[in-house]
Structures are given as structure tokens and as C-alpha cells.
Amino acid sequence: MAEQDVDPASSPIARFGAELRRSRRARGWSQTELARRMGYSNTLISYIERGQRSPTRKFAVKTDSVFDTGQTFYDLWRRIDRASLLEGFPEYADAEARCRRLRLFSLTMITGLFQTPGYAAALSSAIVQRGIITQAEATERLEFLASRQRRLDGKNPPAVHAVLDESCLTRTIGGPLVMGEQLYHLEALAARPNITIQVAPISVAEHLPFALPVVLLGMPDRSVLGYSESYARGHLERDQRIVATWDSEYDQLQMEALPKAPSLEFIRKAREELS
Asked: Is the pLDDT of residue 274 over 50?
């Protein structure tokens, strides 16, 4: 039977299968030969290449070993396994991993990139308790968050400008100890040359331009993407007319928010009040 190629852009599973097929063909191997080297059936190899079967973590790790591709297939598997994430968020995460500049507005909760493990775990635990996700899905979310945060510690981290609504700092998540550590972490992040943190106080009132969390991503090709999310889903905005409006609104937000030094003092006082 002739091999049928699939559109790698159609889904994360299809992308994994297309890369598996491309790598196999580059080596001149048949599906039977690859199956022998991996210790799986050629039927399974065929299903995965056609996007008709989702690979397991073990399969992805073995594939990287056979092709000597580092974590290429493991990372592709993680994109498949992100099904527990909010709809639309994996697409944003891919853009976030490539962007050079991030401008964030957080409402209610501190943005994920700035969350400590304790703070993030408290949020995930609460979602598990409400029956929205399983513990396994919560663990996957936390691991994925940690992988995103590592970019801030890399050699070429993006420039990040974050405006945090006051509610992010006054809502005690995980108890005083966890929240205190989170606020201290924000102070440490604000000391980095590539990170700017401002606080939008409650007094901004009706002049707050955004009613939902918003992110503006400056991409390597100098384009700007927007991202926002509701309770049900996230959306990566590419329409430059809409993004331009968000960009203008974000400029207004920066002017309405406290300057850097007063913002840092606000965070410090919020932390001290937890003691």
C-alpha cells in the first residue's frame, strides 16, 4: 500500500507523524526497518506517521534515541500532550518561545512566566479540587510552565514588560508563606535588566483599558502578535489592525500604571503585610 503523507499543520499529532516520516526517509529506512530498530510493530509506525495514532512519551524518547535528535520528538510529543491546556494556548506558547519582546498585562493572577513553583502548584491544586483537570494533567501543566520559564534564564532572554493589576498582588494564593515567596520573586525579577514590572493600582478605575489578560509578542521578523484569553479559550491574534489597537491601549496602560520604583515599593509593602 502506498504511503500517504499528511499535512503537518493540521494537528500536533500530524506534525509528529510527518517529522517521523521525514526522518525515516532521510535515513533510507522502510517502516519495517524503523519498527525493528525501535522495537515496535510496523503497523504502529504506519499509524503514527499517518496521524492516526498518538505516540506515547516512551515512543517519543525512543525515537530521539534512534535518530539521535536530542529532544526533538520529545518536544513534539509534549505539544500533543498539552491537550490539558486551555484551547489556543499551545499556539501562543510556540510564539512565546520565539519572540524577542513580551508586553504583558495580568489581571487577578500573576502571569505564568513569573510564577514560583509554590504559587503555580496552589493554582493547579485548586483546579484539580474543582474537578476541572486531573492530577496528572496538573503535573503536566506545571512541567510545561517550568519549561517556558527556563527561557528567562537562557542566554538570550526576551525583553519583558509586565503590568500587573493590583489584584494580582493582594490576592493571597497558597497562603501567606507561598504568596510572600512569590512577591519576593517579583522583586528579584524586577532587578533584571531585561524585565520591567509596573503595578496598575485600583485607582486607575475606569481608565484600565483591558478587561482580560493581554500579551503582545514582538517576533523575530518584527511583526507583533496579540494574545488574550477568556475562561473557555485563548486566542492568538494576527490581524494587525486589531493588534495595533491593543498596542495603543497598552501604551496608555503603561502611562496609567505606577512607575518602576513606586511599583517595586508597592510589591515590597504587599509582601511585608503578609508577615
From this structure: yes
* Res. 33: pLDDT tops 80: yes
Phi, psi of 216, deg, nearest 5: -115, 125
Instruction: Give the model's pLDDT for residue 1.
Output: 42
Residues recorded for the chain: 275
Determine phi and psi for 214, rounding to 5 degrees. -140, 145
Give dist(CA 213, CA 250) in Å, integer: 11
Q: What is the DSSP letter of 93?
A: H
Contacts 24+ apart (CB under 8 A), 82-87: 82/12, 82/140, 82/144, 84/133, 84/134, 84/137, 84/138, 84/140, 84/141, 85/141, 85/144, 86/229, 86/233, 86/234, 87/232, 87/233, 87/234
**175 CB burial (10 A radius; 0-12, 13-18, 19+):** exposed
pTM score: 0.71
Alpha carbon separation from 127 to 87, 135, 154, 167, 178 (Å, rounded): 16, 9, 30, 19, 17
The two beta strands, 214-218 and 101-106, are antiparallel
Q: Order of strands across the sheet with 214-218?
A: 195-200, 159-165, 101-106, 214-218, 224-229, 234-237
**Residue 84: all three cell numbers together:** 490539558
How many whole angstroms separate alpha carbon 60 and alpha carbon 33? 17
